[in-house]
Design a protein that fits this description.
Its EC number is 5.2.1.8. The chain is an alpha+beta fold. It folds into 2 domains: 28-253, Cyclophilin (Beta Barrel), CATH 2.40.100; 256-373, Chitinase A, domain 3. It has helices at 35-46, 80-91, 193-203, 248-252, 291-306, 311-322, 344-351, and strands at 55-62, 68-74, 112-114, 118-121, 154-157, 169-172, 185-191, 213-218, 221-226, 233-241, 263-271, 333-338, 357-358, 362-364, 367-373. The strands form 3 sheets. The protein has an 8-stranded antiparallel sheet with strand order 3-4-6-5-7-2-1-10. Strands 11, 12, 13, 14 and 15 form a 5-stranded antiparallel sheet that branches. A two-stranded antiparallel sheet has the order 8-9. A hairpin with a 2-residue loop joins strand 14 (362-364) and strand 15 (367-373). The chain is elongated. The model is unreliable at 1-26, 205-225 and 248-258 (pLDDT under 50).
Length: 375
């Protein structure tokens, strides 16, 4: 059993087609080298950019907020078969699985979130961590253990033991070398790590008795599985970025052409109202406030903040007591936010603030907002 707790309920299936990958010629850099030299060179190459490597994108909606883009570089020169599997699951080009489900990550949720460790997704057949299928049907063998789980942002295959890779994968949020020689690393996050952190914070935290997340313990690690409420992270779109042809999506992923700081530390209060998009509290309760009353509540909160000598401390307290966003559990702390990680209006206001500045009250389709930038 993997330390990620990934298990397959169904028996191993016979592949529907050949596992040979016709375009994967031998890696020339491996020739004539010892195992130790190969591992050292592989580690070096994994930290470098190579133009021939494919870039894929995952547009992820977190807790009902508009999707933010995560761009990943895939190590096709190091693990070509594993990369082909993941890349095809991003495009959906292989059609349907033997279970009749699309061989596509689109619409798939991150079913397992372990704070301070990793976020896990890719169960395209069952969605709960007990399923999954490779593009060849069933599972495929471990390709290489040359790389180390030595940094956050690495993409690695989940499994239920040796040579049981399918469609499930995880993204590290911290280094975890204990996974070495057990899981195949095949890529890394280039842009959008803020979104991965947000998944970790919003979907990986559960209050006692909360129905939003169900805590499960595997090998001493407490994992929180998103339930039926808003605290979910879903891949709403995915695919390959065409670097050579100037893919507009590839251009859009690079900070949206914004000037100024590349990231800001924001605190957030959201008050929802009847008629807003997803009019539910973070606990799944109904919203009874009208739009006018929601705006009045936030305006009164802002007046209290303006009069305070300890603005940041009071903002945290007010967010915990009054915000309808899942981040209220963290005092509204969004952490360091990159371009593209928030809905457009919130990003526009947040990146327009100076350090230690409080925003005006503003609205969008999700409700009434107030922001504070600490740095």
């Amino acid at each position: 059993m993997s330390c990620l707790g990934f298990a397959l309920a169904s028996s191993r299936l016979v592949g529907r087609g050949s596992l040979e990958v016709g375009h994967n010629a031998p890696n020339q850099w491996r020739l004539g080298r010892s195992d130790a030299e190969i591992r050292k060179e592989a580690q070096k190459r994994a930290k470098e950019r190579h133009s021939e490597r494919p870039l894929v994108f995952l547009d992820i909606e977190v807790a009902g907020h508009p999707a933010a883009r995560v761009v990943c570089e895939l190590f096709s020169d190091l693990v070509p078969k594993t990369v082909e599997n993941f890349q095809c699951l991003c495009t959906g080009e292989k059609g349907f699985s033997t279970a009749g489900k699309p061989l596509h990550f689109k619409g798939n949720a991150f079913h397992r979130v372990v704070p301070g460790f990793a976020v896990q997704g890719g169960d395209i057949t069952r969605g709960d961590g007990t399923g999954g299928e490779s593009i060849w049907g069933g599972t495929f063998d471990d390709e290489s253990f040359d790389l180390s789980h030595d940094a956050p942002g690495l993409l690695s295959m989940a499994n239920r033991g040796p040579n049981t890779n399918n469609s499930q994968f995880f993204i590290l949020t911290k280094a975890y070398p204990k996974l070495d020689l057990k899981h195949v690393i095949f890529g890394r996050v280039l842009e959008g790590m803020t979104t991965i952190r947000r998944i970790e914070e919003v979907c990986g935290t559960a209050d006692a008795g909360s129905e939003l997340c169900r805590a499960q313990k595997h090998h001493g690690v407490l994992a929180f599985r998103p339930g039926l409420g808003d605290a979910k992270a879903i891949i709403v779109d995915c695919g390959v970025l065409n670097q050579e042809k100037g893919d507009p999506d590839a251009k859009r992923s690079k900070s949206n052409g914004q000037s100024g700081p590349s990231e800001v530390h924001l605190y957030h209060i959201l008050k929802k109202y009847k008629g807003a998009r997803k009019p539910e509290t973070w606990k799944g309760g109904d919203i009874s406030l009208t739009k006018g009353k929601a705006k009045l509540v936030v305006e009164n909160l802002r007046k209290r903040l303006v009069a305070s000598q300890t603005l940041e401390q009071l903002f945290v307290e007010l967010a915990r007591d009054h915000s309808d966003d899942p981040t209220c559990k963290n005092g509204g702390d969004l952490g360091l936010v990159e371009h593209g990680a928030l809905q457009p209006k919130v990003e526009e206001v947040g990146f327009g603030l100076q350090s230690n500045e409080l925003s005006e009250v503003f609205e969008d389709e999700f409700g009434v907002h107030l922001l504070y930038r600490s740095a």
